Structure formats: C-alpha cells, structure tokens
Amino acid sequence: MKQSIRTAYFSPKQKGTIVEAKSVSFNTGQVSGKDSGVIIYDGNNNSYRFPFSERGKRGCLYGLKVYLEVTEKHTYLFYQGNETFVDKDARIIHGNDVWGQDSHDKLRAGFYLDDFEWEKGAHDSHSYSNTVIYGLNVRAFTMHRSSQVKKKGTFAGVCEKTPYLCDLGITALLLMPAYDFNEYETIIDKKSGNEIVRLNCWGFKESFYYAPKSSFAGDERPDFAFKSMVKTLHQNGLEVYMYFYFPPEFNRADILDILRFWVIEYHLDGFHLLGIDIPLKLITQDEVLSGTKIIYNEYAYWEEKPRYKNTGVFRDHFKTEVRRFLKGDEDKTNAFLYHHRNLPANRGSINYLANYDGFSLYDMTAYDQKRNEPNLEANHDGTNYNYSWNCGVEGPSRKKSIVALRTKQLKNALSLLLLSQGTPFIFSGDEFGNTRNGNNNAYCHDNETGWVKWPANIFGRELLSFTKELISFRKKHPLLHLPAELKLLDWKRCGFPDISYHGEEAFRPDLNPYSRTVGIKLCGLYAERENKQKDDFIFIAINMHWQIKSLALPNLPKDLSWCLVYSTDEREPKIKLSETVTSNSNKLSTKSENIVMGERSICVLISAPSLNT
C-alpha cells in the first residue's frame, strides 16, 4: 500500500535536485508549471506523482520539496501533461548502464547521495611547467584483450592501469567525455540508403553534464566508480582533467555551475573546454575554479590577462608546424624554433602532435591519405590536411627499411614534442605506436580501429621504452620545462645566452627556406634542480634533411665537455674536431667540435666534467 507523502512549495534559489536527510528538493525550469510535476519511483513498482505549483516559483524555476528519504534505488521523471522526460540536470542517470543499447525510452534520473569517503588531505597539484598530460577515452583505453585488465572499458579499468601510467612518467590524465551521453545513434548509409545503427564513442554532443557515464561504471554506482578512479589516481600523484563539449544550442549560463559541481563533488583538477562562445572570462575569474586548470583551443584565445594562472592553451599550430618540419617541408625550421621556445606569459602552453582526432602518431608516419571508408560517409568525413608522410609505403609494411624509418620518425616526433618548452600532451597508445588503420575520424569505431592495442611486439616495446626514458630525461632537467619563455639573451651575465641556435658554424644557424638542420643550445646556468644545483648544458642537434649533415658544437665552460645522451638514428653520430675561421680574422680559431648526423635524426648531448679535470 502506498504511503502518504507530505510536500511543500518554495521559491527556488538555484537549479538542481538536492537530497537532504529526510527529503528531496526539486528546482527546475524544464516545465511550464501547468499540469506538470515529478514522478518518483521507489524500486518496488510503486510510483508517486507530485505536481508543481505557481506557489513555488521564482522566475521560470519551480520549487517542490518532497518529504521522502530517498535511496540509490529511487528514480524520478518530470512530466508535462501526458509526456514524461528525464531531468537534463540529473546527477545520476539510470537505464544507460549497458554500452551500445538504445536506452532512449528506458532512462530515468537518480538521486545523488554524496556518501563517498574521500582521502584525507590535499593531493599533488602540478604547475603547467611540471605537467605531462596523457589523453584517453575511458572505454577504448582498456577494451582490447591486450590491455589485460579485468574490468575492461570502465573507470575501474583505468585504475588497473595506474601502475603503467606512473611508470610511463605522466602527471595528469585528460579524459574524453566521461559524463553520461547516449552513444546509440542512427544514420542513413549513403550507398544503400538504409538506416543503420552506429555508436558515437567520443561523446562530443549535448549530454547529461552532471552525471558520470553509467556504462563506464561496470557493476558499481556510477558516482562511486568515477570517484574511486579519481581517488586512486590522486593517491598516485596524478591529476585528472576532462573534456567538456557544449554545442551552440546549450545554455551558456549553466556552464559555470557544471564545472563547479565537478570540482566540488568529483575533485576534478581541470577541464578542456570545447565549443563556440564559451564564457572563458567568467570561468577564469571564478574563485572556486581558481586552482583548477582551464584549458581551451587556440581559436578561443583572448588577449586579456587572466585573473589566475590556471588557464592553458591547446596549441593546434604546434601540431601543424612541427609535423611539417618533421616530414621535411621547406621553410619550417624557423617556425619550429619559435614553437620550441614559445611560452605565453600568462597562461600554460600545451603542445601536441596527435590526439583522438586526426591521424595517430604512428599513422602520421604510415599514411598519406585518410582511410575513413568504414565510417560509411564515402570518406568525406575527417580532415584532409594531416601533414603526414608514409615513409615510402602507404599503410602497413614489413619491409625492414620502412619499419626502421618509421621508428626513427616516431622517435623524432616524440623528441620534438618532449624537448620543447611548454606542457606536452600524449594521446593513449601513441607512446608505443598504436594505429587506427589510417582512420582519422574514428569516433564511431567501438572495435580494434578505435581501441588501444597494447604493445606485444619488439617495435612497440622499443618505442615505449624510448618514450619512458625521454619523459624521465625531461623531468630530470628543469631547463626543458621552464616556467617562463627563454629570451635568447645573456641576461644573467654569465657568459652564455639562455638559448642559442647553431649551424655548421657555432652561433650561425642556417634559417634559409631550404635548411632543415639546426642546433639548439640550452644553458644550464638558467635553471636549478630541486637540490639547488644548476642544470646541465643541453645541446639538441636536429637534422630533418634526407642527407647526412654536420653541426658545430658550441663551446662549454673549460672544465666541461659534450657527452652524447641518445640519438634517434641506429648509427652512432660522429663527433670530430675541425678548425674553423673566425668572422673577424684570417687566423684560425681554436679547434672546435662538430657532430655529423645521419639523415632525418635527432641527437641530444649534455655537458659533463672533462676527463682532464
């Protein structure tokens, strides 16, 4: 027998459904008020209908308090006349817990109980200069059998990979949308004209922005599953960010409340915001979000100085220009040098060469043309501008020379990314050469095309080992991730500029359009390690030409000499003494060192005590 439940009306102060000790308050503007209200379901086939009233109204918001002690089994729907619909501001969504099913008519809102036990004390927070970001799609990250996790495609699956993430050396995760969205969609096949089902695996669509994705929760409560993941990652020193996409029709006034909710309730450390007309000024001036990283793309850039030092720019131009430099395009050396050192004064600078869209890092070395035919859009979708080079063969190849060249180009790409100033971003799988088979718009592929295939061969393990060592090298040397832009000057009056460029002669870089070779010297006197010791001098020798080239090694303080750290070429670079003529005399200068590099290769050297000191 149904119980009699007391209600009350009030003038709401905010939107949302709020659970209290023995009651629940509904505050919504999604109804007109006439013949509208809420239906509560108790999980035992009982439902209770409660109407809204003009007595509880402020502006367009209606307020209704129901004196009922709700549990995780209770659900609710709003009604308007004979129509029922889900609260778009719901904190929990039920009925969408099985991935890939049409759940449109099964959805109900749930009640957010806030009974999770968080860890005590603050977790680690990293400045942009000390951050290495790793992007992933929660489902695709662990769905492949090679992931070897128990709870594939879930928040718990990410937790199982925490030791791997820590060993890799990244400091932050950037999740693709992990709030609840309906992945089940239908389209018309352009060839047959038939309606077909496809899954939107990325979630960049209008969604239930307050609710964690229930199909990523496995058999757990979605709020507990998401919070458990964040707690585990925080306990291991990793920050957690998430993409949020707001389509043009979405009410911009709601964005700030959504972001605050995820920071307060789910302890997120940052957001990457996508969409037009995002109220960045309002968001970046908010006191609650002052310690939260607010990341946006370059097209959303605005010149005003942010109130807090928490904003970051995702640099699309870095990807374009550095990809072109990598593949040997003309007149790109100077552009690369700019992007290598560029750091905006008032915001973080996030560099990337590959992401969820476009070619993966491996596909950038294996395909000249996109291969999107399986998307059933006649290969018209996805960008046509990939700035890639297939190394001589389109697609997969077992030819040793092609595999070796692609391996070298991948190592070159990772070097250009991780040795640049700013914050590097690596998308999951790119650290070991994951392929999407040339598909540069794999949003609809819940299969081996879209999933991360974990390394099982020598190629993948070699590249993964290289990436780990390179991240470790970057973190060891603060000179490679400074908080402010280098000035190309000896502003400390120590006898060396902070950064300098070199060609076949020291301090004389060749920046002509046909040049593809340059040396970068970073002075260790401008950076200090945690032990208060000065950093090493670092020389980055880059040859993106298809021929062997020579670069001068500039002088070091007299008690130091250059020592090779690594080369992306299998052949050891040759370091030799050569005599050069000074620019102001016909006399020979003292002997200086040169490094002879293989084609399309990068060498890194650091200063070390001379053997005779």
Mind explaining what this structure looks like?
The chain is 17% helix and 25% strand. It has 613 residues and is of the alpha+beta class. Strands 12-13-18-19-20-21-22-23 form an eight-stranded parallel beta barrel. Strands 4, 5, 8, 9, 10 and 11 form a six-stranded antiparallel β-sheet that branches. Strands 1, 2, 3, 6 and 7 form a five-stranded antiparallel β-sheet that branches. Strand 15 and strand 16 form a beta hairpin. The termini are far apart. The relative contact order is 0.08. The model is unreliable at 579-590 (pLDDT under 50).
Topology:
Layout: E1 7-9, E2 16-19, E3 24-28, E4 36-41, E5 47-51, E6 57-58, E7 61-66, E8 75-80, E9 83-85, E10 92-94, E11 108-110, E12 133-136, H1 138-142, H2 155-160, H3 162-168, E13 172-175, E14 179-180, E15 184-188, E16 195-199, E17 208-212, H4 222-235, E18 239-245, H5 255-266, E19 270-274, H6 280-284, E20 293-297, E21 311-315, H7 316-326, H8 333-341, E22 348-352, H9 400-418, E23 423-427, H10 458-476, E24 499-502, E25 517-522, E26 538-543, E27 549-553, E28 560-567, E29 574-578, E30 592-597, E31 601-609
Parallel strand pairs: 12-13, 12-23, 13-18, 18-19, 19-20, 20-21, 21-22, 22-23
Antiparallel strand pairs: 1-7, 2-3, 3-7, 4-5, 4-8, 6-7, 8-9, 8-11, 10-11, 14-17, 15-16, 24-25, 25-26, 26-31, 27-30, 28-31, 29-30
